[in-house]
Design goal:
heterodimer; A: 115 residues; mainly beta; 7-stranded mixed β-sheet; 11 strands; B: 111 residues; 6-stranded mixed β-sheet; 0% helix
């Protein structure tokens, strides 16, 4: 089945140690998004790729970076995780023709713990 | 004013009753609206989308849209304990390829 897959499901990292979260999709969607969701809060968009075009949100800290080497894969890099970066990280995709009008397909998320 | 606002709850509803969830949005130009269900520790799941004023029904779920008043609601009929979750309202940000989410309403269905 076509889907969005995030790995790992749970990630524990040490304070200040770089960590990479991955997302892959078999939907051939043009747009891929990374959201951060802390407990009892709304998902907050960090950045998104429209094809190869990177779109950063104005309030996304420099500590967060992303790569999209091809249509299927997108990575979230946290260069120096702090305790405040502990959250669920959600990857989502959408078709370019529908965009948000068609809604997103979400991956299962990665729960990041910083120790 | 936040772009998308929801009452965070918690909202408790007895099993079998109707649960009513509300959402208001600030952008009058918004054309599409989404409701996602999110179980604890899981990712959001799209359950309803609505584009036109009025009601849209899908099984036990009904989405209602009133663009003049800038609100969208979700009704869940015959509520089941399995409906206990956080419900997120989402609206596309105008001119951008992204969804803005409300903070969600936590719903508990009591057996």
């Amino acid at each position: 089945d076509a889907m969005v897959i995030q790995n790992p499901r749970y990630q524990v990292t040490q304070f200040g140690k770089p960590v990479t979260l991955s997302c892959s999709q078999t939907l051939n969607h043009n747009v891929m998004y990374w959201y951060q969701q802390k407990s009892s809060q709304a998902p907050k968009l960090l950045f998104h790729y429209y094809d190869k075009d990177f779109n950063n949100e104005a309030d996304t800290p420099d500590n967060f970076q992303s790569r999209r080497p091809n249509t299927s894969f997108c990575f979230l890099d946290i260069r120096s995780p702090g305790l405040g970066d502990a959250a669920m990280y959600l990857c989502a995709t959408s078709k370019d023709s529908a965009g948000p009008r068609g809604g997103y397909t979400f991956g299962s998320g990665t729960r990041l713990t910083v120790v | 004013q936040k772009e998308v606002e929801q009452n965070s709850g918690p909202l408790s509803v007895p099993e079998g009753a109707i649960a009513s969830l509300n959402c208001t949005y600030s952008d009058r130009g918004s054309q599409s609206f989404f409701w996602y269900r999110q179980y604890s520790g899981k990712s959001p799941e799209l359950i309803m989308s609505i584009y036109s004023n009025g009601d849209k029904e899908d099984g036990r779920f009904t989405a209602q849209l009133n663009k003049a008043s800038q609100y969208v609601s979700l009704l869940i009929r015959d509520s089941q304990p399995s409906d206990s979750a956080t419900y997120l309202c989402a609206v596309p940000s105008q001119g951008a390829q992204k969804l803005v989410f409300g903070q969600g309403t936590r719903l508990t269905i009591n057996p």
